[in-house]
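Worked example 2:
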Amino acid sequence: MIINNTKREISSGVYIFISILTLSLNALLFIPLIIKGIITKQKSTPLFTAIFFSLISYYFIPPEEFDLYRHYESFEYFSLNSEPLHKLKDLYLLSLFNIGEYLNIKKEFLYATSVIIYYYIITSVLISLLKINNIRDKKLILILSFLYLFSNTLVEISGLRFTTGLAFSILFLHKYFIVKNKKISIYIYMLLAILSHFSLIIIPITILIYKLFYKLFFDKKFSIFLLFFTLLLGLFFINDLISILIINVEDITGLYIGAEAYTNGAWGVNRLDIQKYNSTGFFVEKSKLYITILISLIISILLIFSKENYLNSLSKYLILLTSISFLLTNFDTIYFRYQSLLTIITLMIITTNKINYKKLNSGSIILILLYIKTLHQFSLGFISTYLNYLSGISYIDVINNSNVISFFIYIFNF
């Protein structure tokens, strides 16, 4: 036992040394070490993986249509005038602005910080689940790792606020449902999620509903009814009611959450008309919506009728969260954000249940559906935002200067 522990410590020490060395020379050299670190479940892998992605991200120059362009513009204005150019919806971004102004550092730190938070948490949760469930199959680890790391990409994270809140939400749900840590301290993660993006208030609301009506979800018929009932309501009946509720939340709390924009404005029910999508764009957006609805519905039904998966309390919670998201199907900006949450929760469920991906069963089918969903996201992304993102990257800088030393010299104006 002592010899094995010593070997592990030496192996871990070597991994840390090589990781620091590669990230100091060129971040691209670290790519094989991400895979190695996840397979061998190295404790330091989440930190180094987060640093790797942040080093790549800070060479991105956002086009005007990206939220990040607006955040950079507002930060530079804030640094000069000590007030934001645009009204800020969340405390997270305001906190970053204040830190950046106080330390007199460059705007790119906003994106780099959000990337570090997201990838550190997501990779930590992945490695924790691999350890808890003693998963050693290298192929399965690689299959899962791809989905964990790329269900949200640097494109989505460039929005800063939601994916940061998403990461804190996933950490909370991991502690609450899987680690079974019910200490008050874990609710800090939930609070941080809400402070990062107010839409994640859905987490405490659904947790409360789940605790109050937990026993109902043991009834498979009830779960099926709930899914189809909420989907029909969301598609055909309750747009006005949802709009009123969202706007009232802003009015009652006094918090600016952009309710008008997400209900009747440029990101609301009539988004495609307001943003003047042509017939092709309209078809693409609607097909994306209906494909994600279908995949979410199939995954939920598979979980309900799979004894192994459905005994998991997180599975029951996912059914509830999916049902709530169905109520928002016509508010597609909000709906697609919640889809990111559903995807990672589903990943956590199938990781916890150690699926046999070599045989056709509910777990392997869910895994296939998650791949279809992710690849569909990529294919549509390349038509629009992904190509814009790729055009904004300074590839020469990534190849020649993507290292920790260059990063700190640039960010801190040394």
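The two ends are 48 Å apart (CA to CA). DSSP finds 23 helices and no strands in the chain.
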